[in-house]
Every structure is written in structure tokens, then in C-alpha cells.
From TrEMBL, chain A:
Keywords: Iron. Residues 1-69 form the Ferrous iron transporter FeoA-like domain. Pfam families: FeoA. The keyword Metal-binding does not apply. GO terms for molecular function: transition metal ion binding. Transmembrane segments: none annotated. It comes from Methanosalsum natronophilum. SMART domains: FeoA. This is Ferrous iron transport protein A.
């Protein structure tokens, strides 16, 4: 399953994601535990929570992030 | 220009025996606040990533010694993926005596990733563990002693906005700076190895217990849900506009106008005419465009009330961390006009002044985004002084005209954005933006910031305004204005439908944006003329300072294009609007 279509508010673990330096140095990488905080209208960005912080991430990127439930 | 710290991006030349201290860290961890407190130099800080896009340096004193402290732009890594990050990497390569690395205690994991990269350079480091108050409220506890051992360097817990821990940070930094460095081999480890190390350290030093979210945390979460986020955004904007327009009108009507008309003008006129004989000099000083009349009335009695209230609203929005949330809500709409949610911050800054907005685009990752924001801000975003002038001109006579002018500016932004998006090559980058903690702004910091901005405004605006008004007074008193007005008559009277004297606004508008509007105040215009005059002022060229910044940040050609394009847009749009409105029978 990809992150963009995952349920809101449920934690999940990133299994596979494309190489992205900025995401990596922000601490989002394979094995990270994240959850979706909000979705926007008209295909806008997702807000995801990791640790105690939040990140807005384009839907196109989120679609390429494969996750598994925990 | 002094205020915006626009030093060139090259590296500073320092004498070899200078002590250089680099202030580094992730974006939005409080580097600029610490910098201001340690050096006494005020720099702008705000609660979002990318406030410092160039670097700032200042002196810090300790006993009889002096060192240069350099506020390096925030970076997530030392990979250099944006111009701001390249600046940081260059500084490291240039060497320093000590690095003060600021860590955000609410997000230790991500901050340690950079901390370890910094640690592996051959420079002594002192760590400031900032925002420990926010971390505590989130239930995060960090064992500072263990962290010191892990990082093999001093770690000082700080709350920079409230001066907690800064003295100790300074002590430790100097201790390290004055000690002879022990040479260490810079080591290089891979991304994965480093993250594994980060994970181990976090596990070892941090305990997180569940806390009930505070009011501001819950509000911050709600503000990024479409519902109620969009109604909240509308409410925030409505309150902000109401505060600036309503508050400004109120202050002017009850305090400033009586003070001006009953006290200041009679007093200064009597005073000056007591020793200056009638003639050109007297008129230049206290006549129709008297430097001592308009030079005081325009900046202080007309513009400043709105400017000050605007700064209060802006500082509150900046320090709370709300603006990036607005960007998230607007992202999908902004994409239609070639922008992204992360551009909201520089665009909103443009409503203050175009200069920091254009400089702020350095944090943008693509050239296209930089060009888009620069173009849009220069064309259709009125700066705070011009907004003040619009309210002063239109607010009393026709609120409808005021609303109309601002709606036109929004529509122009959309249309120009859509066109530029087609014309400028390049892909629209996907959004990737940190969402800062929503914080209750610290009231002391807020008051200080507003005061600093007001001081800067008066400092920046007063000189050009006085020169502009002096120029106007000379034009009027020597009769030169009539000659120029006759030349411009076909444009100003025939095409735009304004009185001949309005040509003065076109001349003064080159100096500052509000001067393209203020001369219209004295002309007793009809509502149609007010709107046409305002529209011309809105799209007319940005002030001379902005053109200079565009030249410096991009190239001369772009500054000339901006000049021609904005001026043509102003005349074509203002004229067509005037002609059509008259055909339809409006006066």
C-alpha cells in the first residue's frame, strides 16, 4: 500500500521509498514510523507526523512511498 | 538597505588571527534569536524555516576579546541542495574556531543527523539544546549528561527567547575558542550508518511520555484539516484586515488628524514664517508640498498607523508558525498558477516589503519559483506603505473602491501567475515543507520585533520620502510641474481620465510605491478617478530599491523588463478600465 492512500491517524512503517536527499535528512526513510494527520482538497499535500514533528508532503511523493501497517 | 542584511554571498575576508564562530543548525531551531541575543545585532527571526537565507555576522565580546559570530542559514544536512545550504557548506570549508550547533529539543532525531555531520568536521563544537520548554510541554525529556558523552562536546540546554542558558553557552563557546584545537581526523560515514547512530543515541538519551496536547497544539492540528482549517484561515485573514484597516482609521480619526490639523500644522507654519520671508523658500518649507508639512504628515500621520498595525499582525503570524499552515491549505490552488504552498511565506512577506520577499526566494529550490515570486510581488502585491496610502485615499471616500482595488490585485496575481507559469520553462516542484510547532508568541519578543520593524521602516522610508516631497515642492513652486503635466496630458488626462496634476504621482512613484498614490489625496477625485489612479499606482513600477534588488539578485535585463512590463501594465490596464467605465456611463 502507498502512503497517499493510507488511513488517517493510523501509524505505519515505511517499507520502500524513492531516493530523496531532503526527505532523508529530515529523518523520513525506510523503517520510519509515520502517520497521516490530514489530507487536503483537490489532491493537495498530506501532513504526516513522525516523532513529535509534522511535515507537509506532496501527494505525488506520498504515492511513491510504500508502507506497511503496524 | 542596511536593515535587510543583503551582503553578497561570497565568503567574508577575515584577518587570520580573528576568532570565527559559526552558528549552525536545522532550519527554524532559533539560530537567529540566539544570534540577536549574543551580538545585540537585531536580525529578523520567525517561526518557520528559511528566515535567514544569506548570512549575517556580528561581533561578540568576552572580557577584552572580540570574536565574529556568523549566523549561517539553516540546513538539514551538509549535502547542499539549495542556495542557502550551499552558503552553509562554504562556511565550513572556510574554517572556524568553534561551531555553535543549535539543536531543537522537540525533534532530536532529525537534529542529531546534522549534529553528527558537524561533529565529524575538524572543528570544535558546542551544542545548544534549544526549545527545551516546548519539548517539556510535549512530554519529551532529554538526559543532557548522556548526550554530552555521546557527542563528546558540551551541550547547553537553552530557551533562547527567554535568555535561559545563553550565558553558559557563551562561556563554553569562549572556553573552546581560546583552547588550542586538538587536531582530529574528519571521518566520513554513510547515510545509513549515521542514521543508525542517531537512532542509538536517541534511544539512549530521550524519554517521551504521553501528554495531553496543549490548546495551541490542538489548534495547530485543526488548522491543517480542510475543515475547520479553511474557515479558520478566512477568519484569520478577516480579523487581520479588520485590525489594520479599522484600527488605523480609528487611530487617525480620533488622535492623529486633530493633532495634525489643530496643533502641528498651525504651529510649524507660524514658527517658520516668523523668520522666513514669503517666497519660494517659505513655500518649499510649509507650502502646498512643504517639506515640513507633507514630509511629516505623509509618513507619520497617514502611513505609519497602518504600517504599525500591519507589523503587529505580521509578527504575530510569523512567530506563531501559522503561515506555513496557510500554505498547506492553499497548495493545490497555488499550483494552478505555478506556485506552491511553500511560496505563501515570501508572498505574504511581499505585502510588507518586496525586498525581503525577493531575498527570501533564495530558500526556494528552483529558479522558476524565484522568478515567479519576484515577478508577482513586483507587479501586483502592494507593499505596506502603499496599502496604507490606499486606505488613506479610498477608505474615507469609498470602501467599495478600496475592496475593488484589492480584489483586482488578487485577480491580477492569479492571471499573471497563470501566464508566467506557461512562459517560464521548468517543472513545478513537489511540496516538501516542515510544519513548525504552533506556538503562542512570546510577548516580549513580539513587542521588540514590532518596534524594530517600525524603526527600520521610519529609517528606510523617511529619507526617500523627504527627497520625493522636496522634489515635488520644487516642481510645483518653479512651475516646472505645469510644463511636464502639459507633455503628459494626452496620457494622464486623455487616456487615464485623471486631472493634469496627477502626473506628479507618476513622477514621485518612481521613488517609493506610496508616493504613486499620496499626491492624489489633494485632487478631489471622483470615485472612478480614485479607482483608476489607484490601479495605476498598484501596477506601476515597484520602487527604485526593488529594481536595484532585482538587478543584484538576478541581472540587469530582468530589472529593465520588470520596469517596462509593470509600467506598461499600469497604463494599459488603468486606461482601458477608464475608457470602458466611461463608455458604460460611470463618472
Amino acid at each position: 500500500m502507498d502512503l497517499a492512500n493510507y488511513r488517517k491517524g493510523k501509524p505505519c512503517i515505511i517499507e520502500h521509498m524513492p531516493k530523496n536527499n531532503l526527505l532523508n535528512s529530515m529523518g523520513i526513510r525506510e523503517g520510519s514510523r509515520v502517520s497521516i494527520k490530514s489530507r487536503q482538497l483537490f489532491g493537495g499535500p498530506l501532513v504526516i507526523q513522525y516523532g513529535s514533528r509534522c511535515l507537509a508532503i506532496d501527494k505525488k511523493i506520498a504515492e511513491k512511498i510504500k508502507i506497511k501497517e503496524v | 538597505m542596511k536593515c535587510h542584511n543583503t551582503k553578497s554571498r561570497g565568503l567574508p575576508k577575515s584577518a587570520p588571527d580573528d576568532i570565527r564562530i559559526l552558528l549552525m543548525g536545522n532550519p527554524n531551531v532559533g539560530k537567529s534569536v540566539i544570534f540577536s541575543k549574543l551580538t545585540g545585532v537585531n536580525v529578523m527571526a520567525a517561526n518557520y524555516a528559511g528566515t535567514t537565507v544569506s548570512y549575517t555576522e556580528g561581533d561578540i565580546h568576552y572580557g577584552r576579546k572580540t570574536a565574529t559570530l556568523i549566523d549561517v542559514p539553516g540546513t538539514y544536512s551538509l549535502d547542499a541542495t539549495s542556495p542557502a545550504e550551499e552558503v552553509a557548506v562554504n562556511f565550513l570549508e572556510d574554517g572556524a574556531n568553534v561551531i555553535v550547533c543549535v539543536l531543537d529539543a522537540t525533534n532530536l532525531e532529525r537534529n542529531l543527523n546534522l549534529a553528527l555531520q558537524v561533529k565529524h568536521k575538524d572543528i570544535p563544537v558546542v551544542y545548544a539544546l534549544n526549545l527545551i520548554d516546548v519539548a517539556e510541554s510535549k512530554g519529551i525529556q532529554i538526559d543532557v549528561d548522556k548526550l554530552e558523552k555521546e557527542l563528546d562536546a558540551p551541550v547547553i540546554p537553552t530557551i533562547a527567547t527567554r535568555n535561559v542558558g545563553l550565558k553558559e553557552l557563551l562561556d563554553k563557546t569562549w572556553e573552546r575558542a581560546l583552547k588550542d584545537p586538538v587536531p582530529t581526523e574528519p571521518t566520513h560515514i554513510s547515510h545509513d550508518e549515521r542514521w543508525a547512530e542517531v537512532g542509538r543515541i536517541v534511544e539512549n538519551v530521550q524519554i517521551v511520555e504521553h501528554r495531553h496536547p496543549t490548546f495551541w497544539e490542538r489548534f495547530g492540528d485543526l488548522a491543517v484539516q480542510p475543515i475547520p482549517g479553511i474557515p479558520i484561515a478566512i477568519l484569520v485573514l478577516a480579523l487581520s484586515i479588520g485590525f489594520v484597516v479599522g484600527g488605523g482609521q480609528g487611530i487617525r480619526a480620533t488622535i492623529l488628524l486633530p493633532l495634525l490639523n489643530n496643533v502641528y500644522v498651525p504651529a510649524i507654519t507660524t514658527f517658520v514664517s516668523s523668520f522666513v520671508p514669503e517666497g519660494i523658500l517659505l513655500n518649499v518649507l510649509v507650502g502646498e508640498y512643504g517639506v515640513l508639512i507633507k514630509g511629516i504628515e505623509w509618513p507619520f500621520f497617514l502611513i505609519l498607523p497602518y504600517v504599525a498595525l500591519f507589523f503587529i499582525v505580521m509578527s504575530f503570524l510569523e512567530d506563531s508558525g501559522y503561515l506555513p499552515r496557510l500554505g498547506i491549505l492553499l497548495d493545490s490552488i497555488l499550483r494552478q498558477i505555478g506556485m506552491t504552498g511553500s511560496n505563501v511565506v515570501p508572498m505574504v512577506m511581499g505585502y510588507g516589503c518586496a525586498v525581503p520577499a525577493i531575498l527570501g526566494t533564495r530558500a526556494a529550490t528552483s529558479k522558476k519559483q524565484r522568478l515567479m515570486i519576484t515577478g508577482l510581488v513586483a507587479l501586483a502585491v502592494p507593499c505596506v506603505s502603499q496599502t496604507g496610502a490606499f486606505i488613506a485615499l479610498l477608505g474615507d471616500q469609498s470602501v467599495f473602491a478600496l475592496v475593488f482595488v484589492f480584489l483586482t490585485s488578487l485577480i491580477a496575481l492569479m492571471v499573471a501567475g497563470a501566464i508566467m507559469n506557461r512562459l517560464i520553462p521548468g517543472e513545478n516542484e513537489p511540496l516538501l515543507m516542515e510544519v513548525p510547532n504552533l506556538l503562542k508568541p512570546n510577548s516580549n519578543a513580539l513587542v521588540q520585533k514590532v518596534w524594530l520593524k517600525i524603526k527600520q521602516f521610519v529609517y528606510d522610508a523617511q529619507g526617500p520620502l523627504l527627497l520625493g516631497i522636496l522634489f515635488a515642492a520644487l516642481l510645483v513652486e518653479t512651475g516646472l510641474l505645469l510644463v511636464i503635466a502639459n507633455v503628459l496630458e494626452p496620457l494622464v488626462v486623455g487616456w487615464l481620465g485623471l486631472p493634469k496634476e496627477a502626473s506628479l504621482a507618476l513622477m514621485l512613484g518612481i521613488v517609493r510605491r506610496e508616493l504613486a498614490v499620496l499626491p492624489l489625496l489633494a485632487l478631489e477625485l471622483t470615485t472612478l478617478q480614485l479607482i483608476v489612479g489607484s490601479l495605476v499606482g498598484l501596477f506601476y513600477l515597484p520602487c527604485i530599491t526593488v529594481l536595484a534588488v532585482i538587478f543584484k539578485e538576478f541581472h540587469f535585463r530582468l530589472a529593465i523588463y520588470t520596469l517596462l512590463f509593470t509600467t506598461l501594465t499600469a497604463f494599459i490596464f488603468g486606461g482601458v478600465f477608464n475608457q470602458v467605465a466611461r463608455l458604460l456611463g460611470f463618472q
